[in-house]
């Protein structure tokens, strides 16, 4: 964990919004981990010694829809360019790509890469997004 830098941050994005994103990202990550924790994804246990790979046989299958990822994607897509750039910069700082002292450079780099247009796809592709955002938010001290 990085220590907060003694500096006033003039954030465009509300820290409470980032906290909401952290909760949703962690929920998405937990759901993925739960689905694959046994290492037998998409297999059916027949008895304690045999397994059968699950194949779709043309019958309609009910799928439980997890709205968390879709909600998070929509929330990120609703951010303006400055907010999206700051969110990406927080993830980068949390991941260790930038030091907190390089905040302005991280935001500028995120903005230059077109943060507003592709932010949700980029961020949701990060496997530890919730953790990295949390670390970045803590580094800022918000």
From TrEMBL:
InterPro entries: DUF3775 (IPR022254). Pfam families: DUF3775. This is DUF3775 domain-containing protein.
